[in-house]
Design brief:
Blueprint (H helix, E strand, L loop, with lengths): L2 H23 L21 H18 L6 H9 L3 E2 L5 E2 L2 H10 L4 E3 L8 E3 L5 E2 L7 E4 L4 E4 L2 H11 L8 E2 L10 H15 L4 E3 L7 H12 L4 H4 L3 E5 L2 E2 L3 E2 L1 H13 L3 E5 L2 E2 L7 H20 L7 E5 L2 E2 L12 H16 L4 E4 L10 H17 L3 E3 L4 E2 L4 E3 H19 L5 H4 L1 H9 L8 H10 L11 H6 L5 H15 L7 H10 L5
Parallel strand pairs: 5-18, 6-20, 8-9, 9-10, 10-13, 13-15, 14-16, 15-17, 17-18
Antiparallel strand pairs: 1-2, 3-4, 6-7, 11-12, 19-20
Helix pairs in contact: 2-10, 5-6, 6-7, 10-11, 11-12, 12-13, 13-18
Length: about 500
């Protein structure tokens, strides 16, 4: 072979390798880990156990009833078939509760302000999002916690606007620098509207706060009443004080939300061994009974009203009495809770990823991955707290958000599974390779699968050790921090029009 022919051959070989590198480096043509994959593969309870738990919950509502029912709720419920026992507790007969379940909303649509961000909670589809009310934020540079601020809330909002696996944003922290409760609720709503177009959620401290905030939503949406037609914010309400009592303020908020068309996320969060039985099955029965009471409260006023059935059984460390957000028990309980909700066909919400770790470390990763996977595989429609939360919900971390987003892509990939076909079973490809080159690297099917079936980490590292050292030897936390810095320095959204913003600022005490 002449030198010229050799050089030509090498150029052709190099060009082929370059083309292969380019093909491998292209972004995936199909998202290998889409949100909204089907769950239900993990069934922590047998059918018989589900029936036993439901029987106990029905019995609790009928025989023990709910205490401290507001007079208006008591009258409305009695008119619908409830009774008041000799202890003054509001009791719901089993047949009444079963009828309410049958007529309850089975799918809650949460609109994104961009159409592709809209999600429907119900059936077997699984979505991961946020929750929490952290009063502290982990400061990476200081290596310590500090009180959460309104600026933190806005920064968290615009950060998740760029995290693909976080399907909705419920305010994850409390702005402790806004002490007035009305100003706190108003500014929380403003941050959510300004920082993301994903579906959002927040709490209303008082029922009287609902109208002015929904007025903001209408201004942002561009037309009076537009929010009620396509609601993009849900109300997080905890209408039950465990064990088995209603709360006045939450009831007032519920009625105000119903009047203005705000979807309700009714959260029940009893604690095993404190406000609920320590036995896991007893805890499930008590928590289910209380969440069914919330369903009754909503439906006696507005049958079929959009409500997410958020049964969140929590755990305390029985040695100390402290809330424990991480561990096998709370992961199992919330997965079983999703199974109970889905059994009744109700849109299910559970909690996961509430790590007890104070640092972004191996404990955090293990606890979050365990519960996210358990709840996802159980078929929970909406998995709350799934991003950013630390320190048993007392803290939130920007870097944890980025790491959790990548972890959730892996969970979503497991939920997706495979689309088994004759082509993907690859018998003919195996024949060609085995009888031919003896490897699959250059096969068209390999390249197609690479773009379709595999998740590739951007924060996680897969280099060999020497290359890792040469590239700076960064750990995952350092890479996550760099990602946070990049997003917050470059992504400065304002999803509120100048006209609406001027009106809002003129009428209300906006502080951001």
């Amino acid at each position: 072979m002449s030198n010229r022919q050799g050089r030509s051959s090498r150029r052709k070989g190099q060009s082929s390798r370059d083309r292969m590198r380019e093909q491998r480096s292209r972004p995936p043509e199909i998202n290998p880990a889409p949100s909204g994959a089907a769950g239900g593969q993990y069934r922590p309870l047998t059918d018989h156990q589900i029936d036993r738990v439901y029987d106990t919950a029905f019995r609790m509502l009928e025989e023990l009833g709910m205490g401290d029912a507001p007079q208006a709720l008591q009258e409305q419920s009695v008119a619908a078939g409830a009774t008041v026992n000799d202890k003054g507790r509001l009791c719901f007969p089993r047949t009444m509760v079963e009828d309410i379940i049958a007529g309850a909303c089975k799918s809650v649509v949460l609109h994104g302000r961009e159409a592709h961000q809209t999600i429907a909670a119900g059936g077997d589809k699984v979505y991961f999002g946020t929750g929490g009310a952290a009063v502290q934020t982990y400061d990476y540079n200081a290596g310590a916690y500090r009180p959460s601020t309104l600026q933190d809330l806005y920064d968290f909002t615009r950060l998740i606007d760029r995290l693909d696996n976080v399907s909705w944003f419920t305010r994850c922290c409390i702005a402790t620098d806004v002490p007035d409760i009305f100003e706190l609720d108003i500014n929380t709503a403003y941050c959510l509207m300004r920082g993301t177009t994903k579906p959002v959620g927040m709490s209303f401290t008082l029922g009287s706060h609902v109208d002015p905030i929904v007025d903001i939503f209408d201004l942002v949406a561009g037309d009076e009443g537009q929010f009620a037609r396509q609601p993009f914010c849900k109300a997080h309400i905890s209408p039950v004080i465990s064990p088995m009592r209603f709360g006045d303020d939450a009831f007032d908020v519920t009625l105000a939300c119903i009047r203005r068309g705000v979807p309700i996320n009714a959260i029940i969060a009893g604690m095993s061994g404190a406000t609920a039985p320590a036995t896991l099955d007893g805890m499930l029965a008590a928590s289910l009974a209380e969440t069914l009471a919330a369903l009754c409260m909503v439906n006696v006023y507005a049958p079929g009203y959009p409500m997410i059935f958020s049964n969140w059984p929590f755990v305390i460390d029985l040695r100390t009495g402290a809330f424990s957000g991480g561990g096998a028990e709370i992961a199992w309980l919330n997965a079983a809770s999703a199974q109970l909700s889905n059994h009744a066909g109700l849109p299910s919400g559970v909690a996961a990823c509430m790590s007890d770790a104070k640092a972004v470390d191996a404990q955090m990763g293990a606890e979050k991955a365990l519960s996210a996977l358990a709840c996802g595989l159980s078929g929970a429609n909406m998995v709350y707290e799934s991003s950013g939360m630390m320190a048993s919900l007392l803290g939130a971390s920007f870097e944890a958000f980025v790491l959790d987003n990548e972890m959730l892509s892996m969970v979503n990939r497991m939920l997706r599974g495979v689309e088994l076909t004759d082509d993907t079973l690859a018998f003919e490809t195996m024949r060609q390779v085995i009888e031919g080159p003896g490897h699959f690297i250059g096969e068209t099917q390999t390249m197609e699968s690479m773009q379709r079936d595999y998740v590739y980490p951007t924060v996680g590292d897969r280099q060999e050790p020497d290359a890792w050292v040469e590239s700076g030897a960064q750990d995952a936390l350092e890479r996550a921090h760099q990602r946070v810095e990049d997003i917050l320095s470059q992504h400065q959204p304002n999803y509120i029009s100048d006209k609406a913003d001027a009106i809002i600022r003129q009428q209300l005490p906006i502080k951001i």
